[in-house]
Amino acid sequence: MIDSQTLFVFFSTAILLALSPGPDNLFVMAQSAQNGRAAGFAVTLGLCTGLIGHTLAVAFGLAAIVRSSEMAFSMLKAAGALYLLYLAWQAWRAGSDPGEAERVSALSGWSLFRRGIVMNLTNPKVSFFFLAFLPQFADPGHGSMFGQFLQLGFLFIVATLIVFGLVSLLAGGLGERFRNSPSALKIVNRSAATVFVGLALKLALSER
Question: Which of 15, 35, 149, 206 sits most deeply, having the most CB atoms within 10 A of its CB?
């Protein structure tokens, strides 16, 4: 197994990476501000569930296959971009209607959990990142590479849960102050829609 010093360096790096601005934490921030802390936590759990899939993809070598296939990469990228545009349309449609916001909030739980999973799994860049990042901390001399990848993936998920959980708390708290005001609610929803469109464009224009 991997030695404790290497694990500490890996975990510290994972925390810093989770803190750096990126599609996932912006997604959590937007969902938390729009729908509340619970929604942010649900999305975070979904994103982390998606990370399990990426970890297994690296461990089984599937990420390398996707990276080498232009068609697989393009299909995943298109699916992710279209889904983000759908979420942007929902957020924009909610506008300043508190009733619509409550309806979206009521869909939290499984619905937002699934959003997190889809958002994460349809971003091939995450698999490529794991494919480049995890092997740097694994060593064939320390036993099964499969087991080491699972260990590193688990630590990365823990780091993500900690950071994105804090993002959910902060963004959800700020959003709560605005959701009772129709004009402020409109700003929150339109801002969330803008973030989703930006993420969709970033993903659609990304290259391998």
Answer: 35
Structure tokens at 115: 């959003």
Q: Which of the residues in the chain have pLDDT under 50?
A: 98-101, 104-106
Q: What is the pLDDT of residues 147-176, one digit of tens each?
A: 888 999 999 999 999 999 999 998 887 776
Q: For 195-205, how does the pLDDT look when each residue is reduced to its tens digit (9 = 90+)?
A: 778 867 876 77
Hey, where are the domains in the chain?
Answer: 25-204
Q: How far apart are CA 108 and CA 179, in angstroms?
A: 16
Q: CA-to-CA distance for 176 and 126, rounded, in angstroms?
A: 31
- Percentages helix, strand, coil for the chain (3-state, rounded to 5) are 90, 0, 10
d(CA 208, CA 68): 9
Q: Are 109 and 37 in contact (CB under 8 A)?
A: no
Helix count and strand count (H, E) for the chain: 10, 0
Read off the pTM.
Answer: 0.73
